[in-house]
């Protein structure tokens, strides 16, 4: 019996309680499932098992009904007419005693939720409708405000304190990911309220942008006024172990911070060639996408401890302040994710910067060993730590440490170019095609040029294509560098050749 099955069997033996509920759901969802979801969101979270009777008998769900039940559940919890504000949950199908059981993990929310416009709370006896009990509702709001610092309201903070161009960019990304996204037709204030970034204190009546809103989208000055200790310290320490080889102090909003973290990772870490099925994917980006979002989403922002990402020889370490729900190394098979800043996490999911709760961690574990030779470690405590092993590559492209799964994507491309620039590649999308584009970029750079000047010289109009296939690979391979590396998003940013890039251009390989 697997760990998940053993854990569920033990829960069923223990019986229903404040954080566990059984629903029969043999052919369809019970009508009161959403009331339990609402109550769990409002209280301490919990687990709902579909296919188990109130007495703990594993009855299972009929095979023909499983697909429809999953669809109905996901539709319901994302429907603001059913659950408001909507929740983002998923169902895991787990076989128990030869029968189909669906498990729903509901995290505690930082918001007060309603089901069919009613407020439900949870106690040992079940779900309680407290809508008409003013004192209980007020106490619920006060508890949420006290537990989740991201909900703190700044009464004098409004749209002027936010990067509205960045907000427009986030709206565009969300709509591109989902054409019918509700943000499409909202104005800026409606979007902020919908995302819980602008709230009203039910006790005082004060309204304003929340700490989550300032963190996600705030201009630098008002953000640092609210959180003066906000900083993510990015460090490369491989040669100079007493100090550092490269460093970036990131003290901007979280959306821009994410881009800075990923750019630093791409600049200093290799990207080995990796096939998933028949498709080449970047496991480096898949791993560090989760690492970056973890640093930013799950940080306790009332703590002045600065977050760090340190790239060392053979590994990357991260540290960020934490409000722990346990201590020690986390076991991915038994770990139950707990949202530290649910509003920030939900916003990141809308713009594709984070996965559903728990799934990003599983993805990091799945790719981590293939990348660096060992499973990543996550250590829970007052300071949350992640350790990811990473491969090292010599100057000739040979791998030093980690699994011998082939040279890096970048080194492999350059090795092929040295041996026979005209040789056909077995993986044109991931090696030769990218290399040719980088060569073209290197070949047109003279002095310092801005992004738009580079695109004009290459006769390109698509910024995404230029960034993904020309600029980012050239930066990560070390052929070009930024004139302002401490401010990657600066509007006056320009690019120039490194010595390595000049050598490539002189060799005649650049087109």
Structural account:
With 511 residues, the protein is α+β, with helices and mostly antiparallel strands. The protein folds into four domains: 3-133, Schlafen, AAA domain (Methyltransferase, Cobalt-precorrin-4 Transmethylase, Domain 2, 2-Layer Sandwich); 148-226, no CATH class; 230-406, Heat Shock Protein 90; 408-511, Arc Repressor Mutant, subunit A (Orthogonal Bundle), CATH 1.10.10.10. It has 17 helices and 25 strands. A hairpin with a 2-residue loop joins strand 4 and strand 5. Mean pLDDT is 83; it is low at 394-398, 402-407 and 411-434.
Give a brief rundown of this model:
By secondary structure, this protein is of the alpha+beta class.
The mean pLDDT is 83
| Helix/strand class | alpha+beta
Name the beta content range: 15-25%
Query: CATH architecture of the largest domain, please?
Result: 2-Layer Sandwich
End-to-end CA span: 59 Å
When the domains are counted, the total is 4
CATH topological fold name of the largest domain: Heat Shock Protein 90
What composes the largest sheet? Answer: 7 strands, mixed
Q: How would you sum up the global shape?
A: globular
Put simply, the count of helices is 17
Major beta sheet, strand line-up: 13-12-16-17-20-19-18
- Low-pLDDT parts are 394-398, 402-407, 411-434
Rg calculated over all Cα atoms: 25 Å
Number of beta-strand segments: 25
Portion in helices: 25-40%
Question: For the record, what CATH class of the largest domain applies?
Answer: Alpha Beta
């Amino acid at each position: 019996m697997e760990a998940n099955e053993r854990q569920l069997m033990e829960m069923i033996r223990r019986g229903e309680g404040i954080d566990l509920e059984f629903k029969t759901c043999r052919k369809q969802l019970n009508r009161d499932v959403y009331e339990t979801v609402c109550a769990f969101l409002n209280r301490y979270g919990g687990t709902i098992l579909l296919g188990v009777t109130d007495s703990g008998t594993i009855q299972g769900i009929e095979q023909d009904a499983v697909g429809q039940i999953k669809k109905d559940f996901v539709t319901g919890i994302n429907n603001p007419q059913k659950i408001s504000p909507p929740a983002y949950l998923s169902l895991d199908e787990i076989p128990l005693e030869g029968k189909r059981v669906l498990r729903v993990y509901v995290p505690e929310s930082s918001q007060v939720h309603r089901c069919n416009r009613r407020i439900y709370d949870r106690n040992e006896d079940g779900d309680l409708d407290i809508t008409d009990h003013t004192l209980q509702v007020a106490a619920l709001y006060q508890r949420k405000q006290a537990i989740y610092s991201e909900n703190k309201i700044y009464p004098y903070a409004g749209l002027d304190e936010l990067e509205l161009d960045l907000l427009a960019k986030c709206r565009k990304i969300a709509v591109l990911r989902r054409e019918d996204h509700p943000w499409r037709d909202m104005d800026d204030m409606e979007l902020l309220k919908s995302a819980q970034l602008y709230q009203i204190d039910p006790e005082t009546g004060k309204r304003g942008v929340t700490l989550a809103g300032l963190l996600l989208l705030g201009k630098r000055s008002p953000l640092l006024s609210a959180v003066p200790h906000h900083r993510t310290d990015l460090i490369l320490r491989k040669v100079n172990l007493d100090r550092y080889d490269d460093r970036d102090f990131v003290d901007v909003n979280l959306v821009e911070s994410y881009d800075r973290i990923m750019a630093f990772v791409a600049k200093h870490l290799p990207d080995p060639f990796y096939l998933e099925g028949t498709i080449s994917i970047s496991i480096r980006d898949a791993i560090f996408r989760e690492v970056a979002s973890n640093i930013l989403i799950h940080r306790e922002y009332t703590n002045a401890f600065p977050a760090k990402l340190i790239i060392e020889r053979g590994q990357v370490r991260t540290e960020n302040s934490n409000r722990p729900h346990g201590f020690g190394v986390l076991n991915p098979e038994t770990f139950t994710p707990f949202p530290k800043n649910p509003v920030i996490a939900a916003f990141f999911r809308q713009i594709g910067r984070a996965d559903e709760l728990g799934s990003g961690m599983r993805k990091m574990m799945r790719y981590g060993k293939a990348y660096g030779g060992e499973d990543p470690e996550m250590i829970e405590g007052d300071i949350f730590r992640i350790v990811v092993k990473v491969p090292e590559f010599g100057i000739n492209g040979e791998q030093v440490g980690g699994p011998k799964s082939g040279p890096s994507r970048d080194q492999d491309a350059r090795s092929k170019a040295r041996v026979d620039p005209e040789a056909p590649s077995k993986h044109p999308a991931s090696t030769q095609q990218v290399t040719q584009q980088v060569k073209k970029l290197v070949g047109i750079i003279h002095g310092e040029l801005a992004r738009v000047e580079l695109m004009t010289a290459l006769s390109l109009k698509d910024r995404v294509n230029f960034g993904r296939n020309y600029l980012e690979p050239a930066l990560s391979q070390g052929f070009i560098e930024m004139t302002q590396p401490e401010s990657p998003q600066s509007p006056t940013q320009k690019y120039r050749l490194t010595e390595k890039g000049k050598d490539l251009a002189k060799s005649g390989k650049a087109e």
